Amino acid sequence: MEKRTKGVAVLARGVATCSTQAAVYGQCVSSSYKDIQKDMCLKEFQAFKECVQHAIKRKW
Questions:
Q1: pTM for this structure?
Q2: DSSP string, 28-46
Q3: Euclidean distance between CA atoms 32 and 41, whole angstroms
Q4: DSSP label at residue 34
């Protein structure tokens, strides 16, 4: 498997592992998408990001 393809696969598994955090972040964004503001969902995004990073670290 090409290195780039492997990286995408690892990222995809990391995102799939964090579906709960992704859903919370998505709900935050969609709740006010007509009036979105910078850092509006920062707490939710950070939780999702940290989860994905943790999941990816276990795969590499």
A1: 0.80
A2: HHHHTGGG--TTTTHHHHH
A3: 10
A4: G
CB count, 10 Å around CB of 51?
A: 19
The one-letter amino acid at 45: F
How is residue 60 annotated by DSSP?
A: -
11-55 pLDDT per residue, tens: 899 999 999 999 999 999 999 878 989 999 999 999 999 999 999
Distance CA 49, CA 59 (A): 16
Which structural domain, as residue segments, surrounds residue 39? 3-59
The one-letter amino acid code at 10 reads V
- The domain tally of the chain equals 1
